[in-house]
Design a protein that fits this description.
Layout lengths: L1 H19 L2 E5 L4 E9 L3 E6 L8 E4 L3 E5 L5 E3 L6 E3 L42 E7 L5 E12 L2 E11 L6 E13 L2 H4 L9 E17 L5 E15 L4 E8 L3 E8 L2
Antiparallel strand pairs: 1-2, 1-5, 2-3, 3-4, 5-6, 6-7, 8-9, 8-15, 9-10, 10-11, 11-12, 12-13, 13-14, 14-15
Amino acid sequence: MKTKIKLMIGAFFCSLHVSFCQDILQKTDNTTIACKVVEVSETKIFYKSWDYLNGPNRSIEKNQVVKIIYEDGNIEFMQSQQVQLIPNGSTVIPSTTPNNQTTSNSYSPKVDPKNENKEKIPELAYQPNRIAYGFNSAGYSSLGYDFEFRVIDYLNFGLGAWTHIPSKDIDYTFSSLRLYLSGYLPVNKVLGNDKKINRGFFPFFQPGYDMVVQFPEDGGIYYSGGFIWKIGTDYNFGDKFGITYSYSNGNMNNIGISFSW
């Protein structure tokens, strides 16, 4: 009887020793693998099956393992980004935050996919300066400078200073100061080509008032004034430079350059 009890106790301690000498892989699905761990790489765990220690090495992905319980009682956790080795009996608690998650204190900036990599659309900035030469079939010519100030979209206020060169039928020279409004149409804006909003054609109509100073050859100075109008178009090659053509009362054709500061 005593011999039987001794055999049972010996078998118990032998099985206890065998189980204690195993390495245990605890998987994320709560199953375990009894094995002998051979190597732990950055992504995999290599081991030998406990029931076939002389067999080939096997492997398992580290992200499928929660922890390794080594035969000496040490525990190695796999779920945090930094692997933690905790001695047996230690009270240290490992991080349980998965690799693909952040803590509640982390900040991730919000990105609006509609505005990502979206180019900034330029604003309408059409308020040209013009230097132009005017002429007609009667031999009358003039040279002038206009500059405009923006009021609202599609409307500018303009000032112009012109010197008029007489023809053979007129024996005096005169100058004029023009005040006018310029209603214009930005063609690219109307067509939806917002990236070239300050380029292309800008047809305009300009009603205004012309204050004239005359200098007759026989001496003296005379003042007069009257309503004027002009219709034409600018064509901008770039945002700040182009050409201009207009036709004004008095049968005048005006050609020149337009630019913006």
